[in-house]
């Protein structure tokens, strides 16, 4: 297991990287909470696309707090490339990949920096990620995704072999909570802190992923490099999913393509590629089954928003 050099105790700082695409009002809460963190060097907002009203509000924040920098004008380049663009401008000891709909509690950054400094064998860390109701969010701590783990999920082999350590489910949020800092196989890109030098040495996020699975891919490469990944249960961050106005079908398509890319990159060699064919087919079938209901729900929500605006305009007149 590798150890890395840690910076002196009093010089530890972190740059927050936030990639945003039509996130909604929660983006301002995310920025404000990040700017209030102890140990902050700066915040880099990679604007992959936001409406004019939000851009103006963000620009006001940059005027009042010069630690916030905004990168925009590049279009929607995806999450992985957006993260890499942000990290390329950072100079702090640590970088924090933070989703734009995540709101940090006071002291979150300082605690995360302390843990990474105390564990030189660790190359990445996350906190306990909660839903808005305070429950632990799915995906915050998990096992690595592999063809075998997918079979465990599909056939619920964890129930057939409950005492087999190799027959565990991917997501661990329904398992007993950890009491102390614990090494895990995989964490979420919603909150992922890393030493900047390690992130750079690993090549950052793989830009072959447009959306989803880039965090899983990075965790796999971290483990292959001999480093640990840590989960810190005593500090929480709230992740408010569902705030983006992105078309759900767009998200599911890229999630499906990224899953296939991930399996082909890491589990396809020689004859094993033929074994991945059923997995790829099942991923595409899942997308097709979701396509119709997702499109119907999205169209219905658009109609309801249009009706709501029409009622407001009528009342105003």
From TrEMBL:
Pfam families the record matches: Glyco_tranf_2_3
Keyword Transmembrane recorded: yes
InterPro entries assigned: Nucleotide-diphossugar_trans
Keywords linked to the UniProt accession: Membrane, Transmembrane, Transmembrane helix
Listed transmembrane segments: 274-300
Source organism superkingdom: Bacteria
PANTHER family membership: RHAMNOSYLTRANSFERASE WBBL
The protein's name: Glycosyltransferase, GT2 family
Organism: Thalassobaculum litoreum DSM 18839
């Amino acid at each position: 297991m590798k150890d890395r050099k840690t910076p002196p105790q009093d010089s530890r700082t972190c740059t927050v990287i936030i990639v945003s695409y039509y996130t909604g009002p929660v983006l301002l809460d995310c920025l404000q909470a990040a700017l209030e963190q102890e140990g902050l060097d700066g915040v880099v907002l990679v604007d992959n696309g936001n409406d004019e009203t939000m851009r103006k509000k963000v620009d006001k924040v940059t005027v009042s707090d010069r630690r916030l920098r905004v990168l925009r004008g590049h279009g929607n380049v995806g999450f992985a490339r957006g993260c890499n663009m942000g990290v390329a401008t950072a100079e702090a000891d640590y970088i924090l990949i933070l989703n734009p709909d995540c709101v940090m509690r006071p002291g979150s950054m300082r605690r995360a920096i302390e843990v990474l400094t105390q564990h030189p064998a660790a190359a990445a860390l996350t906190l306990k990620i909660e839903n808005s109701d305070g429950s632990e969010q799915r995906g915050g701590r998990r096992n690595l995704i592999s063809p075998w783990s997918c079979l465990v999920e599909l056939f619920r082999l964890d129930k057939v072999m409950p005492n087999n350590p190799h027959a565990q489910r991917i997501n661990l949020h329904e398992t007993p909570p950890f009491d102390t800092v614990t090494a895990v196989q995989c964490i979420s890109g919603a909150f992922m802190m890393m030493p900047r030098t390690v992130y750079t040495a690993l090549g950052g996020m793989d830009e072959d992923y447009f959306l989803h699975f880039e965090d899983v891919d990075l965790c796999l490469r971290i483990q292959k490099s001999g480093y640990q990944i840590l989960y810190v249960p005593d500090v929480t961050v709230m992740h408010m999913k569902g705030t983006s106005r992105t078309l759900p079908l767009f998200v599911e398509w890229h999630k499906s393509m990224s899953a296939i890319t991930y399996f082909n990159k890491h589990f396809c060699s020689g004859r094993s590629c033929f074994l991945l064919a059923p997995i790829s087919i099942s991923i595409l079938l899942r997308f097709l089954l979701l396509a119709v209901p997702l499109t119907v729900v999205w169209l219905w929500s658009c109609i309801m928003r249009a009706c709501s605006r029409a009622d407001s305009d009528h009342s105003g007149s």
